[in-house]
Design brief:
Length: 687
């Protein structure tokens, strides 16, 4: 039994979601049922199935829809934990860092397409800190031992500024650069779940646990958990899944499942919110992050390049448990203020540059068996209840595999399961096999994809990128030959939406936020791509017009609430104050009147169209409607002078950036001035 090699039954084609649901219904009894499809739950399912256990995994939303997709995107050992370990001579902390560094190396090896080492700079602003930080970072390298990614090094002030020109020059004495890993978290989570499915685990998203099933053990007379009653969220059908043991890997919702098992279970989860914001790529160098170890209130702030953008975060504040955490304006402004502190005054950090914002709930845990309830574990805990429910809680992204191994070891022992040894160290994840750093070149050469698109496909799907490329449609242009983009400034293409359905995407949000990462990178671009995504998915999944509309609305709500569109749109509202010096008010009024020929006090698309024609510029009508609608605050189909002044005031304060109307009117004014024409005469008396 133990010597059997693990075979991969679904090497070529993944079973459909319908097939997975049928298997959940029709299997007499699983060995293990895992509840929760985040990094930890998916890791447990993969660990179990590769030990030849009959495994099921259910997730009530989408894989990685919770905390796992809202992380800082780092695969790290925890520099700051090491600092605590040394300061307090805390052996447990030290071992935790050592384990995380081992896991970091493993994760970079098993999913090389989704992860890579990233140099991170620690700017130093006083001489005495230099040796202190240097010693700490060298210890980090030492603890990693042979698994050190690359050696850390010290930089002079000039060299630091050369690598990171946006840094504040004053008082800077130098910098230290160390290496950690970075990954695409939601795709990594999905890769773990899909790998488990390929090995034969029955995994279904949008499958909710209604209640746990119990039976009375004839020998002891005690109640034992023996499965769960589940509901397919999409069809509403309910069914029972029986299993020898159940693993609770529900992150922030750990306690609600523990209470389902036993009303009297003590609470162990202490949720903490981490807010991150996304800014344009020009805020950070292409391949170097920044760590500010001493913010104004002691929290650590990271500033990292990710997917050609810049991520800044994180805050750390107690929060309520919710499935839809919302980033607050207060958190966003805290991060912006910290960012301003260490960027050069030449760089104006504008509120309008926040392209997306999100909040992830870290499920910190207190150990139920410890006397002192205050001792929040930085580590994870595995707990087995009287009825045999196994709970894995806490921990961090980087150590998901070690946590899964520990959980399964405990489960097998407690439930006397027949299982092989753990096989997940070095086990390649979905797409890792067949990936090479030059894979994208073959995609360009074989299919005629744009280089940027090919690089993105290789970094997202690894060896399976060819399957996505094969589905790509011919563009009809000279170049690229195939691959139609969903939105012009991002390398996501339409065939990825088709492929996403094979990867168990069921809603437009799954595609926007997790199969592609558009929702996390730029909410406005995501909103623009949405109708096309819904159209493609609707065709493939046979959605009715009503269902399509529901999907559009749900995705817009998601972008609005959870991805920071709401706080972005609140920067320009009816009540925005106009605070401009008089001279500027006059200048903007003149600009406005170049469009408002009849002194009506407002402009419409027709006015803008006329002026554009006079300088031979063509913009199609739908686009013009969109451009004006962004500024039309009372939504009456026209932009009043007051609304224009509110817009210009918000632009001046940096609350709004990239306003198409503001830039369009400015360039038109400049063009007209260059020509020195009195445009009214030419356009027939300003009718």
């Amino acid at each position: 039994q133990h010597k059997r090699q693990v075979n991969v039954p679904f090497c070529d084609e993944l079973p459909s979601r319908q097939a997975q649901l049928a298997a959940l219904r029709n299997t007499e009894e699983f060995d293990v049922l895992v509840i929760g499809g985040g990094a930890t739950g998916s890791g447990c399912a993969l660990d179990a199935v590769t030990r030849n256990l009959k495994t099921a995994l259910v997730e009530r939303s989408d894989f990685s829809s919770g905390t796992s997709s809202r992380s800082t995107k780092l695969i790290h050992g925890g520099v700051r934990y090491l600092q605590k370990a040394i300061m307090k001579l805390d052996y447990e902390q030290y071992m935790m860092v050592k384990e995380a560094l081992h896991e970091r190396a493993n994760l970079l090896e098993i999913a090389p397409h989704l992860s890579a080492p990233l140099p991170i700079m620690l700017p130093v602003y006083s001489w005495w800190q230099l040796p202190y930080y240097w010693a700490g970072i060298k210890m980090y390298d030492l603890v990693a031992g042979a698994q050190c990614l690359k050696s850390s090094y010290v930089l002079s002030k000039n060299k630091a500024l050369e690598l990171f020109p946006m840094l504040k020059r004053d008082k800077l004495v130098g910098a230290i650069v160390y290496y950690d890993g970075q990954h695409n978290d939601a795709r990594m989570n999905l890769a773990i779940a899909l790998t488990a499915a390929r090995y034969g685990a029955v995994a279904a998203n949008y499958t909710e646990v209604v209640h746990l099933l119990k039976r009375t053990d004839p020998e002891t007379g005690k109640e034992r958990v023996c499965g769960a009653r589940c509901r397919d969220v999409i069809s509403g059908q309910e069914f029972e899944v029986r299993a020898k043991c159940v693993i609770n890997a529900t992150g922030p919702f750990t306690d609600s499942l523990r209470k389902m098992d036993n009303e009297k279970s003590p609470k162990i989860c202490q949720p903490s919110a981490g807010v991150h914001i996304v800014m344009p790529g020009y805020y950070s160098p292409d391949n170097m992050g920044l760590l500010d170890p001493a913010t104004s209130d002691g929290r650590v702030i990271f500033f990292l390049p990710w997917e050609k953008m810049t991520i800044a975060g994180t805050t750390d504040s107690p929060t309520e448990i919710t499935a839809q955490p919302i980033p607050t304006e207060e958190d966003i402004n805290f991060i912006l203020t910290e960012v301003r502190n260490y960027l050069s005054p030449d760089v104006e950090v504008r509120r309008g540059d926040v392209l997306a914002a999100w909040s992830g709930i870290r499920p910190l845990v207190t150990d139920p068996s410890s006397k002192d309830t205050q001792s929040i574990c930085r580590n994870h805990i595995v707990n087995i209840s009287e009825s045999g429910l196994v709970t894995i809680a806490g921990g961090k992204w980087t150590t998901y595999r070690a946590m899964a191994q520990e959980t399964l070891d405990a489960t097998i022992k407690a439930h006397h399961l027949q299982a092989g040894p753990c096989r997940t160290v070095g086990l390649m994840l979905e797409g890792g096999k067949g990936w090479t750093p030059t894979l994208y070149i073959r995609l360009v050469q074989d299919y005629g994809l744009e280089v940027e698109v090919a690089q993105h496909l290789a970094a997202t799907y690894g060896g399976r990128a060819f399957e996505v490329a094969k589905m790509a449609q011919v563009t009809g242009q000279r170049w690229p030959i195939v691959g139609k983009r969903l939105v012009s400034e991002f390398p996501y293409i339409e065939s990825e939406v088709h492929y996403a359905v094979k990867e168990y995407a069921c809603t437009a949000i799954d595609v926007l936020a997790r199969r592609t990462r558009l929702g996390f990178l730029n909410v406005q671009a995501a909103d623009e791509a949405l109708p096309r995504i819904v159209h493609i998915m609707g065709k493939q999944l046979g959605w009715s017009e009503q269902k399509k509309q529901e999907e559009l609305n749900a995705a817009r709500t998601f972008l609005y609430q959870e991805m920071g569109y709401k706080t972005r749109s609140e920067q320009l509202t009816n009540t925005t104050e106009i605070s401009l010096p008089l001279s500027e008010v006059d200048r903007y009024k003149k600009r406005f009147h170049k469009f408002d020929k009849g002194n009506k006090g407002f402009i419409t698309t027709v006015d803008v169209q006329q002026v554009l024609e006079s300088i031979s510029v063509q913009i199609d009508e739908n686009t013009l409607h969109e451009i004006l609608n962004e500024v039309d605050l009372n939504k009456n189909g026209q932009v009043e002078l007051n609304e224009f002044l509110q817009l210009m005031s918000a632009v001046r304060k940096g609350r709004v950036s990239d306003s198409r109307l503001a830039i369009l009117m400015k360039t038109v004014e400049e063009t007209l001035e260059e020509r020195g024409l009195v445009s009214v005469d030419r356009s027939g008396g300003g009718v």
